Amino acid sequence: MDVLGRRRFLGVGAALALTSHWVQPITALAAKPRSGFTPPTAAQRTAALGSLKGLSAIEVRAFDPADHFEPMGEPEPGDWLAEHVERGQTFDQFRQSKANRPDKRRSTIYFLPLGEFDPAWSPEMADLEACARAFFQIPVKALPTRSMNGVQVTSRERVKGPTQYLTTDFLRMLRGELPDDGYCILGVTMQDLYPDPKWNYVFGQASLRDRVGIYSFARYDPLFWKEKRTPEARELLLVRSLEVLLHETCHMFGMSHCIYYKCLVNGSNNLEESDRQPMHLCPICLRKLQHSVGFDVVDRDKELLKEYRRLRVTREAEWLERRLRHVKG
Ligand SMILES: [Zn+2]
Ligand SMILES: [Zn+2]
């Protein structure tokens, strides 16, 4: 298997007020019942978008899927929706959930790099910052890198693989680091993580209520899998890091996993599945974010396009060009 090799991940229960995109328990390969997922019909997708009455012509076009989005179909065996029960979250349900929204007091997303970042094999923090700013349309600031020496986090040594650090200790530490104007603070690290002694590892974990999250990019470096560091893998590192950061930050706005279209906010069971998913929001998820932040949809698309072109995120840039033509009318 290559670096994309099949690995299984499970989500952490919402009852803990935690959201985690990818978690692997030691017993993850045990047989699980099928989720019974049925792909939503066209009528259900339209209903999930909600009434567009009162919106501007540009907004109506921005929330019109046209033929730019692939509706969610039957999941493949092993996919997230084959193994996890997801009810979906309509726009109206999102609006009624009264999730956190950026306001005058709490308006900035903070990233806190934790531990060493090898410049040759880490995503550029400034690039993640610029893309997230364009994506969420609120200020995003990367704080100075914090050495692991000054951080009180439980760790464990493993027979195979690198030292791992306990996410819950990071989350506790981050709670005390949220700046007064912080909408949320997300720790990012190249260290491998685990959420509980019973689990093998975790890619990230967050608490919406406390506005904190911690994410690891360690497993996006081919060296982690004892594979060669190639230029292609370097490009993939940026895309994957960006994808997980954008996805997880969407959860910080109260957005649940999307079941309506192929979308950034889809759940993902493994790297192969998340690599198949787009980096953009479907119309339903875009409407949720727009409701929360109140941005101009065209300005956002233009700023994102500029960043994706600059960083040569080609697939998304090409898609966004087509989309922008449709939205502008
Ligand atoms: Zn998720
Ligand atoms: Zn969506």
Give a topology summary.
Blueprint: E1 18-19, E2 23-25, H1 42-49, H2 57-62, H3 80-83, H4 91-96, E3 108-114, H5 125-136, E4 140-142, E5 155-156, E6 164-166, H6 167-175, E7 182-189, E8 192-194, E9 199-202, E10 204-207, E11 212-216, H7 231-252, H8 271-276, H9 283-293, H10 297-310, H11 314-328
Parallel strand pairs: 3-4, 3-7, 6-8, 7-11
Antiparallel strand pairs: 1-10, 2-9, 5-6, 10-11
Helix pairs in contact: 5-7, 5-10, 10-11
One zinc ion binds at residues 258, 260-261, 263, 265, 281-282, 284-285.
Characterize the structure shown.
The chain has 329 residues and is of the alpha/beta class. It has a single domain (32-328), classed as Collagenase (Catalytic Domain) (3-Layer(aba) Sandwich). It contains 11 helices and 11 strands. The strands form 3 sheets. Strands 1-10-11-7-3-4 form a 6-stranded mixed beta sheet, with helices on both faces. A 3-stranded mixed beta sheet has the order 5-6-8. β5 and β6 form a beta hairpin. 41% of the residues are buried. The protein binds zinc ion (2 copies). One zinc ion (ZN) is lined by residues 258, 260-261, 263, 265, 281-282, 284-285.
Strand content: 5-15%
Report the strand count: 11
Whole-Å distance between the termini? 46 Å
- Topology as H/E string? EEHHHHEHEEEHEEEEEHHHHH
Overall helicity: 25-40%
Named CATH topology: Collagenase (Catalytic Domain)
State the CATH superfamily name.
Collagenase (Catalytic Domain)
Quickly count the domains. 1
The average pLDDT value, as a whole number, equals 88
Classification by helices and strands:
alpha/beta
Strand order of the largest sheet: 1-10-11-7-3-4
The tally of helices reads 11
Poorly predicted runs: 1-33
Largest sheet: 6 strands, mixed
Q: What is the CATH architecture term?
A: 3-Layer(aba) Sandwich
What is the overall shape? globular
Compute the gyration radius: what is it? 19 Å
Identify every distinct bound molecule in the structure, by name, code or SMILES.
Answer: zinc ion
